[in-house]
Amino acid sequence: MTTIGVIGGTGGQGLGIATRFVEAGEDVIIGSRTIEKAQAAVDKVKELLPGARNIRAAANPDAAKAADVLVLTVPLAAQKDTLLSIKEGAAGKPLLDATGPLESCIGGSATKYIDLPEGSAAERSQSILPDAKVICAFNNISQTWFMQLGEPIDCDCLICGNDQAAKDLVAPLIEKIPGVKVIDCGKLERACIIEKITPLLIGLNIKNKCQFGGIRITGLDRIKACDTK
Ligand SMILES: NC(=O)c1ccc[n+]([C@@H]2O[C@H](COP(=O)([O-])OP(=O)(O)OC[C@H]3O[C@@H](n4cnc5c(N)ncnc54)[C@H](OP(=O)(O)O)[C@@H]3O)[C@@H](O)[C@H]2O)c1
To answer: Coiled-coil ranges per the record (predicted)?
Structure first.
């Protein structure tokens, strides 16, 4: 069993990811700036999954120290301070970064992307925490999907990062969430492409008056079969 620390796990995205990992039988710690808020989030997960024992609350720095794998689910405006608060615990660990650089973070539209000097939110995380193994992940799966408990999620999880061993470690973990297929998109420099799909999906959701827009990459198995002939 892997211990997963969801940093800022008290919002919609973190709570959804935490709930799915608890449902999958992993050990989850919900992190927050305050232990009371983390405990309230844990209570919410226990309401959704009665009898769940594999979840607990901690302050973000303690969650990071105790976990094997970290998930970052805070708004862009909180990214730097939150990462600096977990610097010690995150060193050497895979850190799955869901941060979306959307214009809504600065009072604009959630359908527009903010270009960051580092290239992407995930590269910004890597520059703030050079010792963590940052992997861009969970950007394209909405909290609405995570919260459809009992239903497989109809969306791939596009990931990228510079540490292959870390990606190989987290891919089977992420695929414990029913329906989710992990697509390794390569180095962290691809994160801007993955992150830009999110405002596209939000725009499509608005246009179609729904909340389940997702993305599937197809045909990759077929290419593999051709190569091996
Ligand atoms: N929601 C989605 O469907 C979705 C989908 C894809 C990607 N994402 C990305 O995932 C991240 C989290 O999304 P969310 O909707 O869950 O966000 P959220 O609810 O706004 O915030 C998540 C948590 O971040 C912490 N936080 C918020 N503002 C902060 C601040 N100013 N300083 C420090 N900590 C702060 C809070 O935790 P505490 O108060 O407990 O510390 C909060 O509960 C975002 O970057 C978003 O772009 C979201």
So the answer is: none
